[in-house]
Amino acid sequence: MADLDICLVVDTPFVVILVCAITAATVKDGKYSRFAHIRDDEGVLRRVDLEAAPNTDFIKHVARNPANNAYYLYTRQNPTSPQELTFNAASITSSNFNANAPTVVSVHGWWGNADTSNNVVIRNAFLEKGDYNVIVMDWSQLAAQDYVTAVAGIPAVGGGLGQFLNFLGLTTGIAFESIHLAGFSLGAHVVGNAGKQLNGRLARITGLDPAGPLWDLNPNRLHSSDAIYVEAIHTDASPNGVGIGFMVTVGHVDFFPNGGLAQPGCTTSQCHHNRAWEMFAASVTYDHLTGRQCSSISQVLNDNCVGQSLNMGNADLQKRG
């Protein structure tokens, strides 16, 4: 990855304008058209009606039952065999959860589940890095619904994660300042809503190519106020709705590797999209990807940003930008 170019946008209004030959959705008047084709976590291309009515009954069911989300703990004592944590304190106190170690929560996206690739790779990266509690959240009940319903239900699912983390803290005594959430695609907005539930007290949130369709003006999207430090890595973004991600800045720091859209070695939108968690996992291991702040569109397009530098990703809970 020596040739990786990273554009770093820090709380600025600058928009990176790029052109991509692979489109995840058609656009009209700068927005997604009603019928879009969006790939899920497993790369399956699904036709989506972005103006369809969400299944409100299912969303109410999710909101009433936060325990329907599943939480699986991995530690160095059980790196591949998960222990399920629930709202029953005994499930936590009898597990390998170490209150003296930092906690990382990995969250999948649309049509994903606990065993989706982003969860496996991120889990392995942290456990190889050090002594962590890695919790994989499974919200597949909602994630397996149509896209519009999944989007509408994310505040309830994210709120449920926030409630679980609060219960975890009450049970073990861990501080929110020791917790790092990493969410992929729609999962980025899930972790944002968990942060909202906890009034922004979590140490860190990393949004991995946050999903774009129906999120540009959505007040429930990932936001810099959702944690003490919020970072996003955009790898399949576009100013005009082309791509699974989007160009909107959401954190204290937003990284746009290779301009945020076309990634080396990729020929599909899903490949570009997945690069976010692949790069993040690599940065946890090596902490080797560095971006420089850009002060203008010209600097971005000419690859000559000269502002302050900041490492992208990594596992540092004290990281700020």
Automatic annotation (TrEMBL):
Alphabetically list the UniProt keywords. Secreted
* Alphabetical list of Pfam families matching this protein: Lipase
Question: Transmembrane segments in this chain: where?
Answer: none
Subcellular location(s): the record lists: Secreted
Matches recorded under SUPFAM superfamilies: alpha/beta-Hydrolases
Listed Gene3D superfamilies? alpha/beta hydrolase
Q: Which InterPro entries match?
A: AB_hydrolase_fold, Lipase, Lipase_N, TAG_lipase
The similarity annotation says: Belongs to the AB hydrolase superfamily. Lipase family.
Protein name listed in UniProt:
Pancreatic lipase-related protein 2
Q: Which organism is it from?
A: Bicyclus anynana (Squinting bush brown butterfly)
